[in-house]
Each structure stands twice: as structure tokens, then as C-alpha cells.
Amino acid sequence: MKILITGGLGYIGSHVATVLLQNGMDVIIVDNLENSRIQVLDGIQFITGKTPVFRQMDVSDASEMNQLFDDFSDCAGIIHFAAYKSVSESVSEPLRYYDNNLGGLQLLLKHATSKAIPLIFSSSCTVYGQSETLPIREDEPLKEATSPYGSTKRIGERIIEDCCKAYPKFNAILLRYFNPIGAHSSAKIGEYPIGIPQNLVPFLTQTVRGIRPILKVFGSKYDTADGTCIRDYIHVVDLAEAHVESLNYLLKKQNSEACEVYNVGTGNGVSVLELIRAFENATGKSVPYEPSDPRPGDTIAAYADASKIEQKIGWKARYTLEEALLSAWEWEKRINH
Ligand code: NAD
Ligand code: WQD
């Protein structure tokens, strides 16, 4: 069975590729390498002993997409990761984000709907903004997006829902990820941020390694137990397995609705200070950090009610926070910055 992964050499896509290959699927990866490196293919091969098909191409190029779907007309499922993901960059370059994130999706949907190929879409907990209730359920009302990046996820979800209504044979799952962290246990693939990391865990591991002088903890007086923000940090391998189980669920036609939406998180809310302590416990390394001003636009607390995906698809996170942080550290030590 051939599965197409767009953005498959990126952080999450590369982990999904390994799980799919380990489950006996044939994998076709497309990626334009704008935010990844060709060496990731070696990591995937090392872990799985298998060689996925790879095509370097842009999913927002119509003729390349026509060629792709001509060449792989027997593709059974699609997992779509190819997108830009920096919130701050999206504020300064909105058109680039709308073009890439929505242009690529629409071209993909043209092919997926006409051939009724099931689709898994990378959405984000960013669509909830600051939720009124915690933990966050999928039926929580969505908030106005606070960045063009967030808009591309909200609009992307809507476009897919409309396609599922219009094309009765087309089915999709929208996965709203909480905060993916960590790396494969082999430390052969992981997150490779370009430039100064915006996200907490890569910034923290680079600080412990001595590449950054100190980790600034954004905000210390929030209305939370220790005054710092709360998130739901999920091991990227757990997240990868959620994709494969969601895809299998669609392929076996177990879905009751044409478009279903699921949170992918652990269900545990963890503060920034708790995460720092968990890292120190897991690795024996101390983290240099200092309190700092709040980061504009930060949500105070967001963590998932992850019961729907467990009940309907049978997926549940299995790694602890310490395991995820230890894997992030093992990966950090192998990166050449
Ligand atoms: P990533 O940047 O590591 O991976 C995305 C990959 O897509 C990269 O390899 C990039 O080169 C490729 N790509 C981008 N535009 C492309 C195009 N037009 N054609 C072909 N390839 C293209 O990001 P990631 O962290 O793996 O995220 C994957 C998806 O998950 C994204 O859609 C992102 O918005 C979403 N997501 C990520 C997070 C997170 O915290 N990492 C959270 C929620 C949702
Ligand atoms: C986590 C916590 C920060 C860095 C972002 C995107 C979101 C989603 C996931 C894609 C927050 C604090 C961070 C630092 C800190 N991506 N922090 N010092 O903000 O939950 O979400 O990534 O969809 O759309 O916005 O993740 O890792 O940036 O921050 O104190 O140097 O760590 O304030 O509380 P966030 P993050």
C-alpha cells in the first residue's frame, strides 16, 4: 500500500515515515527541502532498513503535482505536512504563508478529491487560542486566529470540511497537535531548527549545550500554579503513531463522518518551570534560565482532552515527559549547528 507524505523530510513527517515503513507500508516522500535536509533520508533508512521513494518538489507547483499523481496513481492515502510553521515569520510575511500553506493544500485536494484518496491533515491546537475550558475538547468553539499561520490552519480545516461535504467519497481526518517535542530513540532523526529556535525545547537543549547563554522563561506572573504558561508536550514518536493509526482507521473505513477532527496530546498540562525540572531530572544536566517578560500573544494554558482519539481510533500517548526530554537531549548532542 503506497502512502504519500508531503513535507516528509521535516520534523514530524520524518518520524511518520519511519513508523509507516515499519508497519510495512510503501512510502512516497515529497519535500522541497526549504526547511529540511536531504540527510534525513539516511536517518530514515538507518532506522527502518528501507528506502522510501523521494521526490524533491514543491506541492504548490501545479504541473509537478499533476506529474506526481500520474506517476503514483495507485496512492492509497495522503498525510499532508508540507507548510511553513513559524508564527512570527507569518506575521511579517503573511502572503508567503497563505500561498504556501493554502496553495499547496488546494492543489493536493484537487487530486485527493478526484481520486477519493483519504487525507490526514496537520492542524494545530493554535486553532483554539485561549480556550474557555480546560482540558480542551474538540467541540470547543474556535477563536479568531492571532497570526496568519494560525489562520492557515483554521482556513485549511474549513477547506477540507467543505471538500468532504462536496465530494461524498472523499474522507479526511484533521489532527490538532498540541506541542510536539523529542526525537526518535536512535537519535538519527529529530527537530532541526534553522536559526535561533522559537520553541521552548530546542531553545532549552541549545542552552544546555552552551550555544545560547540562557533560557528566558517568558512570563512569571500568569494565573497558574507557578506563574508560568502551561502546555501539553507530546513525544513526536507518539504523534507519529497517532497519524498511522488515524490513517489505518480511514483506510478500514471505520470513520462515521466524512471529516473527523481529533486532538493529539497527552492530556497533561505542564508549566515551563515543571518542564525545566523534568529535563534536569531526566538528563542530570542543569538548565540556566531566568524569568523574563511575557511573550506577546502567548496563550496562558492549553492542554488536550485526548479521550476522543483514544475511544474512536484507539490511540493514546505512551511516552512520559522525561522520556521525551531525554530523547530531545540525545538528539541535540548529535546535531552539528
Ligand atoms: P517542518 O518544517 O519540520 O516540516 C515541514 C516540511 O515541509 C519541511 O521539510 C519543508 O521543507 C517542507 N515544505 C514546506 N513547504 C513545502 C512545499 N511547498 N512543498 C514541499 N515541501 C514543503 O515542520 P513540522 O514541525 O514537521 O510540521 C509539520 C506540519 O505540522 C506543518 O504543517 C505544521 O504547521 C504542523 N504543526 C506543527 C507543529 C509543531 O510544533 N512542530 C504543531 C502543530 C502543527
Ligand atoms: C511553549 C512555552 C512559551 C520559548 C507554538 C506555536 C503553535 C504550535 C506549537 C504549530 C510557552 C515558553 C518558549 C522560550 C519560554 N505550532 N517559552 N522561553 O507557544 O505553545 O506554540 O508551537 O502549530 O502554533 O505558536 O510553543 O514551544 O514556543 O512555547 O518560556 O525561549 O514555552 O512562552 O509558554 P507554543 P513554544
Q: Roughly how much helix do the residues carry, as a percent range? A: 40-55%
Distance between the termini: 37 Å
Q: Can you tell me the overall shape? A: globular
Poorly predicted runs: none
The tally of strands reads 13
Quaternary state of this entry equals single chain
User: What is the CATH domain class of one domain?
Assistant: Alpha Beta
Report on the structure:
40% of the residues lie in helices and 17% in strands. It has 337 residues and is of the alpha/beta class. The chain has a domain at 2-181 and 233-266: NAD(P)-binding Rossmann-like Domain (Rossmann fold). It has a 7-stranded parallel beta sheet with strand order 3-2-1-4-5-6-11, sandwiched between helices. It has a two-stranded parallel ribbon with strand order 7-10. Helix 1 crosses helix 8, helix 5 (94-115) packs parallel to helix 6 and helix 9 packs across helix 11. The longest helix has 22 residues, at 94-115. The structure holds nicotinamide-adenine-dinucleotide and UDP-4-deoxy-4-formamido-beta-L-arabinopyranose. UDP-4-deoxy-4-formamido-beta-L-arabinopyranose is lined by residues 85, 87, 124, 126, 179, 198-200, 203, 215-218, 229, 231, 272, 295, 298. UDP-4-deoxy-4-formamido-beta-L-arabinopyranose (WQD) binds next to helix 7 and strand 8.
Q: What is this structure's SSE topology?
A:
Blueprint: E1 2-6, H1 11-22, E2 26-31, H2 40-48, E3 53-56, H3 62-71, E4 75-80, H4 87-92, H5 94-115, E5 119-124, H6 148-166, E6 172-177, E7 179-181, H7 200-209, E8 215-218, E9 230-231, E10 233-235, H8 236-251, E11 259-264, E12 270-271, H9 272-283, E13 289-292, H10 307-312, H11 321-334
Parallel strand pairs: 1-2, 1-4, 2-3, 4-5, 5-6, 6-11, 7-10, 8-13
Antiparallel strand pairs: 9-12
The structure holds nicotinamide-adenine-dinucleotide (NAD) and UDP-4-deoxy-4-formamido-beta-L-arabinopyranose.
